[in-house]
Each structure stands twice: as structure tokens, then as C-alpha cells.
Design brief:
By secondary structure, this protein is an all-alpha fold. It contains eight helices and no strands. α2 (14-33) runs antiparallel to α7. The model has no long low-confidence stretch (mean pLDDT 88).
Length: 188
């Protein structure tokens, strides 16, 4: 599964990646313009119309033997039973972990962590006032399909700049800690 996602994001199969990116982008653009119910209805109508057209073409023009052209897809097991069990176990574990973390944050088990969460929520109110969530999701989808390839092509340059920034941040932290220690010893 991880390899399939990596292949998709690194554009190893260009046609599949292009179809996924285009489909997701169009879906999100439609959701920005129209309601979820309308988008799902129109997409379902489009798929059903294409399937009925294919069925009609197969029966009338091809003069088929009455077999369904989609029979091999109907015979396929969409998700094997073992995989369903693994996925559902992971989802339940992820859900309970998220609920436990939210409970810990909202009920202030650790004051420092809850204050960080409060700051993040406060900043998100400003982001929400400026940008729609679907717009952020659209930008995220485009970024997920773009940044891995850009990084792979410019890895040396990016790694050099990241290490430079990391070094400067570490130097700044060391400087701030030294100043705080000085202030602490002056008070004593």
C-alpha cells in the first residue's frame, strides 16, 4: 500500500498520477462551487450513464451473448477479508488514540500542551476567517502531488538550505538559553 502511494506521488505511472490529481482537483473545485449532495449526485449520474451506455453498446452493437461487460469487475472481491480486518483494526486504534489525545488536551492533563493546543485553535480561527477549508484541502492535494517530485529533482539544494536553517535555529536556541542562564544567575 505504501509503495503504491509512493509510486502515485512520485509520478512513476504518469497517467495514473495525472488521473488521480485531476480527479481530486476537479472534485474539490466542484465542492467549492456546489453542495456535497449535488457533486455526489452528478458524479453518480455520470458514472451510471457511462455504464448504461457501455451495457447498451455491448448488447446492441456488439450483439453480445448477453453477458455483462462488467462481469469481471462484479466477480472481483473489492477488498479481501484479511485486509478489511487489518484496516478496521487500524482505524479503531487511530480513532481511540485521537479521542484519548483530545480528552487529554481539553481536560488540561498537561497545562503546557493544552496551552499550545489553545494557541493552535486560536490561530486556526484567523485562517478560517481568511480561507475556506476546501481551498486549503485543494492546496494540500496539489502540494502532495507536487512537492515530492520537486524535492527529488532539487534534493541537494533543498537539503543544504534545510541544514543551514537548522544550524541557525540551533545557534539561536543556544544563544537564548545562554542569555536565560545569565539572567537566572544575576537574580540569585
Amino acid at each position: 500500500m505504501k509503495k503504491a502511494v509512493a509510486d502515485l506521488l512520485y509520478w512513476r505511472n504518469i497517467s495514473l498520477s495525472a488521473v488521480c490529481l485531476t480527479g481530486l482537483t476537479l472534485c474539490l473545485l466542484c465542492l467549492i462551487q456546489f453542495s456535497v449532495i449535488s457533486v455526489v449526485s452528478y458524479a453518480s449520474l455520470l458514472i451510471l450513464s457511462a455504464a448504461l451506455t457501455m451495457q447498451l453498446y455491448w448488447k446492441v452493437l456488439k450483439k453480445g451473448d448477453g453477458a455483462n461487460p462488467f462481469q469481471r469487475y462484479l466477480d472481483m472481491d473489492p477488498v479481501p477479508q484479511q485486509q478489511v480486518e487489518v484496516i478496521s483494526a487500524r482505524l479503531v486504534l487511530l480513532l481511540f488514540s485521537a479521542l484519548s489525545t483530545l480528552r487529554r488536551l481539553f481536560l488540561v492533563q498537561d497545562t503546557k500542551e493544552s496551552l499550545k493546543f489553545l494557541l493552535i485553535l486560536y490561530l486556526l480561527t484567523y485562517v478560517g476567517a481568511v480561507v475556506n477549508g476546501l481551498t486549503l484541502l485543494l492546496l494540500g492535494v496539489i502540494g502532495v502531488f507536487t512537492f515530492p517530485v520537486m524535492y527529488r529533482h532539487n534534493q541537494v539544494l533543498v537539503d543544504r538550505h534545510v541544514s543551514m536553517v537548522t544550524g541557525r535555529v540551533a545557534a539561536f536556541r543556544t544563544k537564548v538559553r545562554a542569555q536565560l542562564r545569565k539572567q537566572g544567575t544575576k537574580r540569585d
